[in-house]
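Human: Cast an eye over this sequence-structure pair and say how the chain folds.
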Amino acid sequence: MNDAQFWSLIEKIEGCKRQDGSTDFEPLVAELSKQTEASIQGFFETLSQKAHALDTRRHYRRFSWFPGLSDSFLYTRLMVVAQGKEAYETVLENPKAFPKRSTNWLEGLLYVADDAYSEATGREFPREATVNIESFSNEKGWAK
């Protein structure tokens, strides 16, 4: 999946895009479930790449000085992606623009590909990507 396709799909997310409870992923899931299995996998791959790129020491230091907040850091990185291409690129290039630790995050974006794949195929999504989406896995981003 190319970047233009990915960002077009991200634009399908409705609501505030900052908290799971006030964000509607269903339009994105519905659109993605119409795609091929390869496209759904491509969406997850691209999402993983985007979140992985934000998994850096500099972004985390803006987020929190408290070590080990892996889940909330991941969900906050996903929130940044959900804000769209322009906001994402701003934060990617300027870690000081990364949100500070709060209750604003989007865990639900992590499961969009799973839901779309299940709707499309009736099977469980394999969740494979060339990079690890989890926090603290970007070795280059965490190198001193």
